[in-house]
């Protein structure tokens, strides 16, 4: 029996690392696009002001990029240290996209980021612009492979269980890559990074306006960031709709928990807050049909018959089939060398019930219900803040285009104070995605209590608090360096003029 405290501390450590990592990733994704757009304007207009603007945000990008790498590396190592059973059970599948991310995407980022930072006066304008765009594209490709791996955990496809190696092995790489859950998650996550980067740039730019410094720089940055952010946020909402369809289809318990829906049915209501509902809206979101049937928590635990006649097994029935799968697996392993006939029969039973394999580790059906309030409220925080930030970016862009943003001090303060809010929205989204999947490390295949490593609780607790200290130090250092860079402002001076002449000559070659 696995110590529940060990499971809790292992989950807490992984959640801590993931949350800190996601502080850095979305800003990297968002700034990559914004600074690339700014440099594109520079190359097209040949206006040194835009070069200066792009270089400033590239400096902020570089600070954030460097710290984000450290947390990402630690996160991947934790799969081997804290979740070794998971790594053994599905390492052939989960490891493939992470390996591709490391070999291809990260290599691409590392190559072009060097050109982007150190090549301003050493390569032509167009080549440097290409390096800037490719740095951003590399960051997005890196996110793609990580989210392919995460999407597979949400909806496992393209594999078969091998009882001889006790591993799930990939049989269809394309099915893993084209997993609809992974594709939706990729666009939703990357585009939310656009929103994060945009709100960050707008907030910092408004600080300059409040200080009555770098007015042209601040207004130009607001113009670009607002446009990128509005496009990104609208796209986030669109991809959120497709994500809702996938969650309803592949992870109905997550959807029921996110809505606090105990008893489902057709015309299921959408809960704005407890006691305030929109009739039929959840059915529209989950099925694109107001009469669509959406199961609730009790339906999923007790079993039900879908409107199309499909019988969905109860938790007890799934547990029984999971027990059969585990017993058959054990019988196969015991008889494969001594009694081939018995082994073949056991293997047949295993194959018939392998999709319920993970349920054999479940002791009580209540384990299948995630912490409802820890999914319900973060979902509303994510949606509510997303709508607020979209409105904010529209207002900021409107007043900037009307040349009135300098006078709107209240809007400048709201924009500056909204920087932490966009991070809250992103973190809330990941809480919904990951807590809503519990108790599964891999949906329906492997619960977290079977995935955890055999470690001492004390060792995990110790490293947890070490990571708290180290990651907090990283964050404090990054914030301090960023504040110093912002206070210093964009580069100015005679050296910029010389660099501009050299860059122009190089660009003409």
Automatic annotation (TrEMBL):
The keyword Endoplasmic reticulum belongs to this UniProt entry's keyword annotation: no
Membrane topology: Multi-pass membrane protein
Keywords assigned: Cell inner membrane, Cell membrane, Electron transport, Heme, Iron, Membrane, Metal-binding, Transmembrane, Transmembrane helix, Transport
Biological process per Gene Ontology, one example term: aerobic electron transport chain
Gene Ontology molecular function terms on file: electron transfer activity; heme binding; metal ion binding; oxidoreductase activity, acting on diphenols and related substances as donors, oxygen as acceptor
Bilayer-crossing regions: 20-44, 56-75, 95-118, 130-153, 186-210, 222-240, 377-398, 410-433, 458-477
One CC-aspect GO term: plasma membrane
Places the protein is found: Cell inner membrane
Protein name per the record: Cytochrome ubiquinol oxidase subunit I
Organism name: Candidatus Cryptobacteroides merdavium
Organismal lineage: Bacteria, Pseudomonadati, Bacteroidota, Bacteroidia, Bacteroidales
């Amino acid at each position: 029996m696995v110590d529940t405290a060990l499971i809790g501390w292992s989950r807490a450590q992984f959640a801590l690392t993931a949350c800190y990592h996601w502080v850095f990733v979305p800003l990297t994704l968002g700034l990559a696009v914004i600074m690339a757009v700014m440099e594109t304007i520079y190359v097209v207009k040949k206006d040194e002001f835009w070069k200066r603007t792009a270089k400033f945000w590239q400096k902020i990008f570089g600070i954030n990029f460097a710290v984000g790498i450290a947390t990402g590396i630690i996160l991947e190592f934790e799969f081997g240290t804290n979740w070794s059973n998971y790594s053994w059970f599905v390492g052939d599948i989960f490891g493939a996209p992470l390996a591709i991310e490391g070999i291809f995407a990260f290599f691409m980022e590392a190559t072009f980021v060097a050109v982007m930072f150190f090549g301003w006066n050493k390569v032509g304008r167009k080549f440097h612009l290409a390096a800037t765009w490719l740095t951003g594209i590399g960051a997005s490709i890196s996110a793609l492979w990580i989210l392919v791996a995460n999407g597979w955990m949400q909806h496992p496809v393209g594999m078969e269980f091998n009882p001889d190696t006790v591993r799930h092995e990939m049989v269809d790489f394309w099915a893993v890559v084209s997993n609809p859950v992974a594709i939706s998650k990729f666009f939703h996550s990357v585009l939310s990074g656009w929103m994060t980067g945009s709100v960050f740039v707008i907030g910092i730019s408004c600080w300059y306006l409040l200080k009555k410094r770098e007015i042209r720089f601040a207004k130009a940055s607001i113009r670009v960031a607002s446009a990128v952010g509005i496009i990104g946020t609208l796209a986030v909402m669109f991809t959120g709709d497709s994500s809702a369809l996938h969650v309803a289809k592949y992870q109905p318990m997550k959807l029921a928990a996110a809505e606090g829906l105990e008893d489902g049915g057709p015309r299921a209501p959408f809960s704005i807050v407890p006691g305030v509902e929109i009739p039929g809206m959840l059915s529209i979101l989950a099925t694109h049909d107001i009469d669509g049937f959406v199961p609730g928590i009790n339906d999923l635990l007790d079993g039900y018959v879908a409107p199309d006649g499909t019988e969905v097994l109860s938790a007890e029935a799934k547990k029984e089939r999971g027990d059969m799968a585990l017993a058959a697996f054990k019988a196969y392993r015991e008889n494969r060398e001594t009694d081939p006939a018995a082994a073949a029969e056991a293997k047949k039973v295993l194959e018939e019930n392998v999709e319920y394999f993970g349920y054999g580790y479940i002791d009580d059906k209540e384990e299948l219900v995630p912490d409802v309030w820890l999914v319900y409220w973060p979902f509303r925080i994510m949606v509510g803040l997303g709508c607020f930030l979209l409105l904010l970016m529209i207002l900021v862009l409107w007043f900037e285009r009307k040349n009135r943003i300098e006078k709107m001090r209240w809007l400048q303060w709201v924009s500056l104070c909204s920087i932490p809010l966009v991070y809250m929205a992103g973190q809330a989204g990941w809480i919904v995605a990951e807590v809503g999947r519990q108790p599964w490390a891999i949906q329906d295949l492997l619960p977290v209590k079977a995935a955890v490593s055999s470690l001492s609780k004390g060792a995990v607790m110790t490293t947890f608090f070490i990571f708290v200290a180290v990651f907090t130090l990283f964050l404090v250092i990054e914030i301090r360096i960023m504040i110093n860079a912002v206070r210093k402002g964009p580069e100015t001076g005679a050296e910029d003029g010389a660099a501009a002449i050299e860059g122009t000559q190089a660009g003409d070659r």
